[in-house]
């Protein structure tokens, strides 16, 4: 039965309709349409098409939280829970959050149930554990903090980056950390006078490139002067975490123009 449930759940696709996430499910009809057409209809059209799709009432993240709590409370720790743990991760629940959630559940639903759920959750969030360990190791290489996920500018990056403000007075300075392979889009620091940016490598290995010129490697201590109105990008090497300090240079009528991403074809030529 658990395999049937997992198969049913694995075919869920989400898309946006009028700013509301709509869950489209066909697995019921695909798997049970001839054998149990009414069950298939209720599964596809009601459970997922209506209940899970009411994201204007309760978001997918919260629905995942309610669902995994309900399953664990009933001691359902089979492949259906694995699926919903994966959905919870996809819906934004982090490794640290799921650990705290399962700890909370353990006190109310039962310690053995929490243990069983933790075994599944460790596999679902295994990549995050490796990433967190690598991030912690990288932090030891530099004196500046890695900071928080750079969510405000995430749409201008390929991969994950982090931002830590170092100075907000006199000269604005930030420490920007890139996971391996992460880079920002081509962009231009515009100014009619002065302006531009300066980078100083802090830890790891990265790249800087101006349009029409070869890419330049950045190591700890490398200083990069970026004139205003020059199209460029910067980021980590494919096999290394990387961090640099970014200094905003004062100027007149300054602004940033974000452009197209650095393609994999362009990036993969760098070694």
TrEMBL record:
Occurrences of domain Carboxymuconolactone decarboxylase-like (ranges): 37-123
Alphabetical list of Pfam families matching this protein: CMD (PF02627)
Signal peptide per UniProt: 1-19
InterPro entries tied to this protein: AhpD-like, CMD-like, HNL-like_cupin, RmlC-like_jellyroll, RmlC_Cupin_sf
Cross-referenced Gene3D superfamilies: AhpD-like (1.20.1290.10), Jelly Rolls (2.60.120.10)
Keywords: Signal
One Gene Ontology MF term: peroxiredoxin activity
Classification via PANTHER family: BLL4564 PROTEIN (PTHR43698:SF1), RIBD C-TERMINAL DOMAIN CONTAINING PROTEIN (PTHR43698)
Protein name: Cupin domain-containing protein
């Amino acid at each position: 039965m658990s395999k049937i449930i997992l198969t049913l759940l694995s075919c869920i696709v989400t898309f946006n309709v009028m700013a509301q996430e709509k869950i489209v499910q066909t697995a019921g009809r695909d798997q049970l349409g001839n054998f149990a057409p009414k069950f298939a209809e209720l599964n596809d059209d009601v459970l997922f098409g209506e209940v899970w799709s009411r994201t204007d009432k309760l978001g997918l993240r919260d629905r995942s939280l309610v669902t995994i709590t309900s399953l664990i409370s009933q001691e359902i720790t089979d492949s259906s829970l694995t699926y919903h743990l994966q959905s919870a991760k996809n819906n934004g629940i982090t490794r640290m959050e799921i650990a705290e959630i399962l700890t909370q559940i353990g006190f109310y639903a039962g310690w053995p149930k929490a243990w069983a759920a933790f075994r599944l959750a460790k596999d679902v969030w295994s990549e995050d554990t490796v990433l967190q360990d690598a991030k912690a190791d990288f932090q030891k290489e530099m004196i500046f903090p890695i900071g928080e996920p750079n969510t405000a500018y995430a749409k201008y990056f390929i991969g994950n980056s982090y931002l830590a403000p170092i100075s907000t007075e006199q000269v604005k300075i930030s420490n920007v950390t890139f996971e391996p392979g992460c880079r920002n889009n081509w962009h231009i620091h515009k100014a009619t006078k002065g302006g531009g940016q300066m980078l100083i490598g802090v830890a790891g290995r990265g790249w800087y490139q101006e349009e029409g010129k070869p890419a330049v490697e950045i190591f700890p201590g490398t200083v990069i002067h970026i004139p205003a109105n020059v199209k460029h990008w910067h980021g980590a090497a494919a096999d290394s975490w990387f961090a640099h300090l970014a200094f905003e240079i004062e100027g007149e009528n300054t602004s940033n123009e974000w452009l197209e991403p650095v393609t994999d074809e362009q990036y993969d030529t760098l070694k």
